[in-house]
Amino acid sequence: MLFGKPPIWVAGAEPLVRRIVAGLTPLGRRVRVQPVEGLGDLRTCRTLVLADPPQPAELLARLLAQLSGTRVAPLRLILMHRADPPPPLPDLDPGGPIALETFALEDRAARVLLRRWPLHCGLDPVFGQVPHLLLVGFAPPARALLAQALRLIPYGEWRPRVTIAGGAAQVEAGFTLAYPHAGEVAELRWVGPDLPDLSQAPPVTLVLVCPDLPVAAASVVAQIRQRLAAQQGVSPPILLEVGDAVPSGTLADWDGQTFPFSYLDEACRPAVLFDGLGDELARTIHESYTDSIAAQGRDPEREPAGRPWSRLSASYRDANRHQADHLWAKLAAMDCRAIQEERVDSFTFAPLEAERLAVIEHLRWAADRHLDGWSYAPVRDNARRHHPQLIPYPELSEPMKDLDRFAVRGVPNLLARSGLGVVRMLILGLPPPVADCPADARLQRLATQVCERLVARYPDRSLIIAGTLADPAARLVARIALERAGAGLFLLCPRPLAETLAAQPDEASRRDLLGLLTQAERRIALPGAGELERWFTTRAEIGICLGTAPTPAQTAKQVILDPLAEQVEWGFEY
């Protein structure tokens, strides 16, 4: 328990205050709830949270007058508001009695949610799949989620798609007014209140549902799930905003696709609100920038973008956040992962990889500029937000390309400063086993042996096991890979997930499959004849064949696990 720490003062609107207190209490943190209009003597207060208070500018001015000349250490004041931009506030002296942090609930929640469920959780960009986000309903935090998704959506030179259903005409008009150049980032299709016919659209890779009426959310999700299965043959993750509802049920009740969340709960988590969860890498990027300024003999604190993070303006903080948030998309586009640094050696992108990443970085930068209201013009004009570099990467001058190349070559060093190292994936394809392959202790022993040898043979790679998981033998091998080799899991979906679940012979098998689904970091839709085999052939570096013979899905290297003969046949030097 942390009773030695001073209490955190909280004042403001419900239900925010209740959520903040509920998050702090299990951690043993003391909380002092105060009325906004009757805040006590703040001289002993270290941290004050104002949860979406009325008239924040007047309140801040009153607090400033109360604290002037009374404090040695500044008061940490977290001002929570609904969405960016923050409300108009008086300018504060950086050395004054209040250290102000503005906290946009919807925007911060959007960052947390799309970090946990990135846009590539439902696709394989290296296989040429393109993000298609389906947003249904436009209740909070839909607008923030859409803006954040557009910042993260560049994975390559293919044009991504966003379909928005359920928003009224004024919603589209309002978003277009706020982000007039969003159409430069992705193909945006507003389709009115009803779900559209998606049979001719690119496969949907992620669904966000923000219903105006949460009570009807279950039927909306069921309709989405059935329509995508029938029209596209896909079953992407569906993130559902549930507000104050508390989801109930067991694993057996789960459809394998729907992930409920409350954006207020996400934003009010102590790690996010107080500890800057999600900002670690953004701070590292900022520190790297200030170090580069100092290395040139300049004083970082004399430049607006070089001030310490605690005194950095919101616009510069957000620029660092946007760059940091997109690093995970870059790693996914290169079949790389970030793990604890002590487990890996130094890493450098190959020249062709760096060039591909430079293209993606330019697209990311351009998306950030477009969403901030900038457009192309041959001469830069900051007042009109015109920029000459908002052109395709091939049309850039070599010095401008070098800026993007420099940024992506520095990604491993940035991650290293955060205690992370970059490793390449080693994708292990797990084709459907032959019919007589038993899922028993013999297969378990063989799978353990193979996993241990692969880890020893490829110490600088991160294993990924990829398969449909429709068969118990495949699930057994996947589970061994996760538990014994620390592997990641890609779920391959040649048909809708509901069909795979319905085809399980009994309830125990269905629960077994659902249990593994909770650990899948990607679900890759592969509808269409031959797509599963093509994925194994082009994407799996090693095929793990279960049975007595290689499978038709040929990979460059294959390992045959034959539990009936209790032997492993390696088709390559290991």
Number of helices: 19
> Which stretches are poorly predicted, pLDDT < 50 over at least 5 residues?
none
Relative strand content:
15-25%
- Any idea how many domains? 4
- Our Rg estimate from Cα atoms comes to 26 Å
Oligomeric status: single chain
Mean pLDDT: 93
How does this model look, in words?
- The chain has 574 residues and is α/β, with parallel strands linked by helices.
- The two termini are 51 Å apart.
- The model has no long low-confidence stretch (mean pLDDT 93).
- It contains 19 helices and 21 strands.
- Helix 4 runs antiparallel to helix 12, helix 12 crosses helix 13 and helix 15 packs across helix 16.
- Strands 12, 15, 16, 17, 18, 19, 20 and 21 form an 8-stranded mixed β-sheet that branches.
- The chain folds into 4 domains: 99 residues, Rossmann fold; 125 residues, Rossmann fold (3-Layer(aba) Sandwich); 132 residues, Globin-like; 148 residues, Rossmann fold, CATH 3.40.50.
SSE layout and pairing:
Blueprint: E1 8-12, H1 16-24, E2 31-34, E3 47-51, H2 56-67, E4 75-81, E5 98-104, H3 105-116, E6 132-136, H4 142-152, E7 161-165, H5 169-178, E8 187-190, E9 206-209, H6 217-232, E10 238-241, E11 258-261, H7 263-268, H8 270-273, H9 280-295, H10 314-325, H11 327-333, E12 336-340, H12 351-371, E13 375-376, E14 386-387, H13 398-409, H14 411-417, E15 420-430, H15 441-457, E16 461-467, H16 472-485, E17 488-493, H17 497-502, H18 507-517, E18 522-525, H19 531-539, E19 542-546, E20 557-562, E21 567-570
Parallel strand pairs: 1-2, 1-3, 3-4, 4-5, 6-7, 6-9, 7-8, 9-10, 10-11, 13-14, 15-16, 15-19, 16-17, 17-18, 19-20
Antiparallel strand pairs: 12-15, 20-21
